[in-house]
Amino acid sequence: MKHGCLFLVASSLFASNSNIIAYASSVRGALASSESEMTGSSNSRRPFAANDVLTCRVTVVGTMLDINDDRSQANQDEQISCIPIVDEKELDNVFPLDLPAKVLAVHMSSIERASLYVAVKGAYVTEDQLVVSDKAAYEVFNELPGHLRRLEEQRRDLFTTGTKTLGVVRISTTDAQPMFSAAQLEDGIFGNGLKNDGVTVVSQYEECSFGKLKWGKTREGVVDIKVNQSIKSFKSASDLVTAVQKQIKAERGISTVASLGDKVLMCLPPGTGSWAASAGVGHWRAQFNNEWCLSLTGLVHELGHTMSLGHSAEDGIEYGDVSGMMGYGRRNANGPRKCFNGYNNFRLGWYSDRTMKVDPSTSPRVYKLATFVDYDKTNSKEPVLINVGDEYFLQYNRAKAFNSGTEEKQNLLTVTTDTANTSGSTNLGGFRSGETFNKVSNYQSSRKRLVVKVCDQISGNGSSPDALMVSIGLDGSACGQVQQPDDKPSFSIDKAIILTAAKTTKI
Ligand SMILES: *[C@@H]1O[C@H](CO)[C@@H](O)[C@H](O)[C@H]1NC(C)=O
Ligand SMILES: *[C@@H]1O[C@H](CO)[C@@H](O)[C@H](O)[C@H]1NC(C)=O
Ligand SMILES: *[C@@H]1O[C@H](CO)[C@@H](O)[C@H](O)[C@H]1NC(C)=O
Asked: How far apart are CA 319 and CA 327, in angstroms?
């Protein structure tokens, strides 16, 4: 990747939600360039040995795109990568990995969920690079050997609730530093926010999860680290991160940078290209480029990746769903305030005691769907998330309070689903009172059409939730029909993430 594409640093960056400064440049290449990893200090290379076998947990590194970026790049910004496993531990550095097409064809789904383990015969890893022979052979483990099973149990991306710590590393070089001081980062993440309005990534997660996921700081707060080299001496952002990790470990006598927090946020100075932010799906670390270090959408989005969420698509655009946090981002430090779409909320599990599973193949029926924003006002018969046949997820996207900044489908019923073979989701539409979602003509091979119609909208008050009355069924709607009250709420508490165990495949 090229250097010299410095950010436009302007004082007006955080003026308002709508004040977005556009820049056109290549995001790919930041932490997504195989060239940068493969051309590390070549003197650390050696000839291959017969017993060179490297085990990797395979994931994708997702890069965030600015909402005003060139959208034609959007489909290139997931880089399949190796988290090397040596001596039964995951190493800190993540390297791009080219897998054979056959492996990709069969295993894309588990790669996207960061749960595929591969042994590469004819590969080794050094301090700063992954070296793979042209003649490498790949073996995929789906039935994990004992030591990998232990690692799997320890995987740190599987939590979505609890009180967890964020390690923050502020990185400077001899000639460049992030625009935010360590004190600003600390206040902007854990304190009252850069704009002094209380809006931070920590407050947003706490509100969106109704206190189920709380991020706290570590004892040492923001780690300010300076590498004794110029910014131009690093070929890429990942080269800089690699050098910083080495220095942190040496200075602190720790064996892994992962020990700095449950998740570790790295704030990089300008000068490594014009990427915004990135993180490995199901990995503990996220990277932010200069002003993106305090972007609310950037921080929430990348932490979403570390908890295994993929991008939210819409109309075939990978980042197109901006109703929630897993689509395009903005640089603003204090907005837009929004949460996650229905499918992602299902995976995060925060509303599991207000998630109703519906089988539409019985006759059409009307359900009261409260908005998740009023979760704390619901009773046990008022779901905030409806799971239709484990395939379609309904949520009332009320634009108020901590979701007041939702950027589309405001105050509508949203229908989301998972994107096949990825960790991502797709927004299928937003519907107001009287409108119907009826695009699925052969629901789960029933040869019947799924019909989801918004019958009515209900305004809540200080003690009752805003809600929609929604008819769900096949080939028809029950809006306006008299029906028996359903006094048996069927809430499900299942999680969507299921790690599959299949047999070992040799390629
Ligand atoms: C998902 O993967 C399966 C098996 O790997 C494949 O048969 C299917 O066509 C894929 N679906 C999509 C939409 O890519
Ligand atoms: C930084 O690097 C320069 C040149 O390589 C060297 O002269 C200097 O002593 C180094 N400073 C520190 C603090 O290590
Ligand atoms: C709020 O709305 C509920 C349901 O419509 C109603 O039972 C309750 O009396 C209302 N409470 C207030 C304070 O208006």
From this structure: 4
